[in-house]
Amino acid sequence: MGFMEKPGAAADPRSWQVALYEPFLTMLPISGLSISVVGRSRRESTICASDPVAVRIDEIQFALGEGPHWQALRTGAPSMVADVVHADHSGWPMFGDALLQLSVGAIFAFPLKMGAVVVGVADLYRATPGQFDAAQVATAQALAESTAAPAVRRATQVAGDDLPIFVGIAPEMRRAVQQATGMILVQLNLTATEAFVRLKAHAFTTGRPIHWVAHEVVERRIDFRSIPD
Predict the structure, then answer these.
(1) pTM of the prediction?
(2) CA distance 49 to 36
């Protein structure tokens, strides 16, 4: 069940991303997922996502700072919502409201661990409601554990690359988002983390993907000095 990179991975910049998330899709009854890693500065980077819905779930949770993702990261235990429509979202009210606008029936967050340390999260979703049984929970936990080290290694490599992640995968890792974060940093005299949070929050409140907003910032159609806090 361990992670194994596919032959020829170096030839396709996306192949390593598919290799990270594909075992989850193959072995679990889910529709999609994203995988994120926590760096030494405690800033998170989403390194892969299987589809646009997974990307949107990721964006909303990061923009709001609440949801099963953050609970799994904080507690080191899985956080599972088997029925999005009928669940109690009092622990993450804003995320719960936003989630109801998506075609999502269930969501699951499994921490990626290296030993006792949580180094990231795998955020899974189903298009229809449905809980994991005990065997599926064990499978998800084993996949998350085996994915942790390769995900951290890839996050480190991507952070040092001068190449964008391809369209449809991990928008916050793309060059446009990095450039936009730097521009917002200068405009508002913020730290890089604060600038990134502002970018994500604006994308969420305007209902647009973060990479769309980033391109507008880079092309100087948006200036954050003119946007109220």
Answers:
(1) 0.72
(2) 9
The terminus-to-terminus CA distance of the chain in angstroms comes to 46
Q: Are 120 and 38 in contact (CB under 8 A)?
A: yes
Answer yes or no: are the C-beta atoms of 171 and 213 closer than 8 Å: no
Q: Which helix (H) or strand (E) holds 112?
A: strand 106-114
Closest CA to 143 of 227, 44, 7, 28: 28
- Picking from 37-46, 79-88, 112-121, 138-147, which range would have the lowest pLDDT averaged per residue? 37-46
Q: If DSSP codes are grouped into helix, strand and coil, which group holds residue 114?
A: strand
Least confident of 91-105, 149-163, 185-199: 149-163
Q: Do 216 and 184 meet the contact criterion of CB atoms below 8 Å apart?
A: no
Helix (H, G, I), strand (E, B) or coil at 123: strand
Q: Which domains are present in the chain?
A: 9-160 (3.30.450.40), 174-226 (1.10.10)
Radius of gyration of the chain (CA): 17
Task: Output the pLDDT for position 41.
Answer: 56
By the 10 Å C-beta count (0-12 exposed, 13-18 middle, 19+ buried), 103 is classed as exposed
Instruction: Supply the mean pLDDT for the chain.
Output: 83
Query: Dihedral sign, CA of 167, 119, 190, 161?
Result: negative
Do the Cβ atoms of 138 and 116 come closer than 8 Å?
A: no
